[in-house]
Amino acid sequence: MAQTHDGVGEGVSLPALLKRNVREFGSSPAYREKEFGIWQSWTWAETADEIQALALGLINLGVREGDFIAVIGRNRPYLYWSILAAESVGAVPVPLYQDAVAEEMAYVLEHCGARFVIAADQEQVDKVIEVQDRLHQFEHLIYLDPRGMRKYDHTTLHEFSHVQAQGRAAHDELIGELERRIATLTLDSTCVMLYTSGTTGKPKGVVLSNRNVIETARASSSFDKLKLDDEILAYLPMAWVGDFIFSIGQAYWTGFCVNCPESADTMMTDLREIGPTYYFAPPRVFETQLTNVMIRMEDAGAFKQRMFKHFMDHARKVGPKILDGEPVGLMDRIKYAVGDMMIYGPLKNTLGFSRVRVGYTAGEAIGPEIFDFYRSLGINLKQLYGQTEATVFITAQPDGQVRSDTVGVPSPGVEIRIADNGEVFYRSPGVFVEYYKNPESTAGTKDAEGWVATGDAGFIEPDTGHLRIIDRAKDVGKMADGALFAPKYVENKLKFFPNILEAVVFGNGRDECTAFINIDLTAVGNWAERNNIAYASYQELAGHPKVLETIQSHVEEVNRSVAEDQMLSGCQVHRFVVLHKELDADDGELTRTRKVRRRIIEDKYADIIAALYDGSPQVSTVTEVTYEDGRTGSISATLDVRDAPVVALQQKMAAE
User: Among 27, 260, 341, 655, which is disulfide-ready with 33 (CB 3.0 to 4.6 Å)?
Assistant: First the structure.
């Protein structure tokens, strides 16, 4: 049953939308979670009861209006309820990345001055306890999973279910105060504070109002015709704005069900069981899924491999056209239908995408080959362009106008302009209120008229109105000869290959482009196993001669592809190194959303970069690393620096 809402109306806050949902479709499922192998379910009415009990418990515990409540853990209904309960009592929820180390959490908790923390389990509790001496405003910690917590000092520790029980016990006493606090919430009240990934410095606290979240949820839900019976799988970090708008904003606007997997290890199994109709994933997830498909095909017999290649070649030719309703010949349609029965359908089912009606990718640019692969299967995968500061949506791709080289047209209510230097600016109802405690950065990002600088370089196609993003404005540069340098363009082409997990391209201001490459341990390890190649570590496998030869062939193929783009042909990779370790967020080389921190990498690996440009055949290096338990150490390696042939532009033009 579709639900439509012509205006924000009574939905002036998320708690107000919750009240409306209970009244309009209270018996519909709001949340599901798989626990101990069994799916548990809560209706909207049951969800409201759980949130109210927690909110009353928070008031009973001493939460004041304006307090900050940090929420740490994986996607679970209880933690989503915590966010709603925090807003219900007039506090500000602050989700944190669950895989952040204690030091990273300390910065956020100290910066926002959180008095209360709601944590999923013992692991997250231990991180907070480790740094609590630095948290001068911290008072109480609520934990969800009681396992391992019995011998802790419970002076300031409280079990989640006990806080709810105390809230229910104090219902008659405190319900009036809770209702008063909810009634004071307006569209301009703070809904959530989300911290940026911090690619260029310390994370900033982005303050989003109810207006930002609800207006964005309303417009984006209407754009893609989202409805009550849609299903999503909530598995991305709760601290990320994408999860917040999909799993909370749009879920509360439309009333669709949010499904939480049992764990990261069972996510793919849970995805297949749920079969979401609305799906979102950053490019890395789609890259990983494609890698797993290719690994399975490498293990298949020769006949299956030939059949897979035959039908996939046909799918790439006609699949996107069929998906967009374009004319396709009868024989091509019949052949595609046979392929769907034998290849595409089973593959979509294996991936959990059989029911996907709307799929999105964002966060980073996705390689066009990867994007086209999924659309050729008949999956309505689209790109959107957004930021935390925009409450996600800046542009999106309408059905029938989906392309791999653009990020679509302005989302409903969004205005876009391009500055003289090529930087993209936007303004919309989703534009953030401010950076918390940082008026200088707020003024430097958002001007008095509400225009926000994205930091990305791009242009709007005059004939289609679609926005094309070239790269991060700070990363786009010029080669020494004046040719355009856009590293992300080349990196995405490299990451299309299942053997390559990450790539970082250098070349700004230089005569040539060079690259760091990380192998994908899963894909390359599978290849090594099939070929009886023994290895004891990532470092040993990454340096194996046959691995280096394979990566060399990938680089050469990418160079041939890059050479076909006259504007970017100067970005071909002349020399490269396969790194001896994976780039890691714990080592500061990636953000928690897996974005490359280029400046840190350039400083940390300056000796390797120097070898790439001085003609050295090898380079010896020592790299500091951080282990999972927080200890630090170092690893030494001698790396081969490899040359890659490039396609000369004049040679290509002569051939044409």
Answer: 260
Domain boundaries, the chain: 19-185+230-276, 283-472, 477-655
Residues 346 and 341: their CA atoms lie apart, in Å, by 7
**Count of Cβ atoms closer than 10 Å to residue 420 Cβ:** 5
Which residues, listed in sequence order, are joined to residue 396 by a DSSP beta bridge? 384, 409
Check: CB of residue 495 under 8 Å from CB of residue 523: no
Across the beta sheet with 434-435, what order do the strands follow? 190-195, 205-209, 434-435
Following CA atoms 446, 450, 456, 460 in sequence, which dihedral angle do they give, to the nearest 10 degrees?
A: -160
Report the amino acid identity of residue 282.
P
Q: How far apart are CA 597 and CA 639, in angstroms?
A: 22
Give the homologous superfamily in CATH for domain 477-655.
ANL, C-terminal domain (3.30.300.30)
Confidence of residue 289 (pLDDT cuts 50, 70, 90): confident
pLDDT tens digits, residue range 153-203?
Answer: 898 999 999 999 999 999 999 999 999 999 999 999 999 999 987 655 688
| 21's tokens | 């949902």
Architecture category of domain 283-472 in CATH: 3-Layer(aba) Sandwich (3.40)
**Surface-to-core class of residue 57, CB atoms within 10 Å of its CB (0-12 exposed, 13-18 middle, 19+ buried):** buried
Dihedral angle at the C-alpha atoms of 400, 405, 411, 416, nearest 10 degrees? Answer: -140
Q: Compute φ and ψ for 199, nearest 5 degrees.
A: -70, -25
In CATH, the architecture of 19-185+230-276 is 3-Layer(aba) Sandwich (3.40)
pLDDT tens-digit map of 441-461: 999 999 999 999 998 888 899
What's the whole-number mean pLDDT along residues 582-607? 87
Q: What is the mean pLDDT of the chain?
A: 91
Q: Band of the pLDDT at 649, cuts 50, 70, 90? A: low
- 283-472: same fold as 19-185+230-276? yes
Tokens for 631?
Answer: 């200890």
217 in Cβ contact with 190 (< 8 Å): no
Distances (CA, A) of 177 to 52, 59, 89, 168, 173: 12, 9, 9, 14, 8
**Tens digit of each residue's pLDDT (9 = 90 or more) over 357-416:** 999 998 777 877 889 999 999 999 999 999 999 999 999 999 999 998 899 999 999 999
**CA–CA distance, 459 with 424 (Å, rounded to integer):** 8
pTM score over 0.85: no
Please give the full DSSP string across 236-259, using - where no structure is assigned.
S-TTSHHHHIIIIIIHHHH-PEEE
Rounded-to-integer distance, Cα 180 and Cα 133, Å: 35
Given a cut of 60, whether residue 653 has pLDDT beyond it is: no
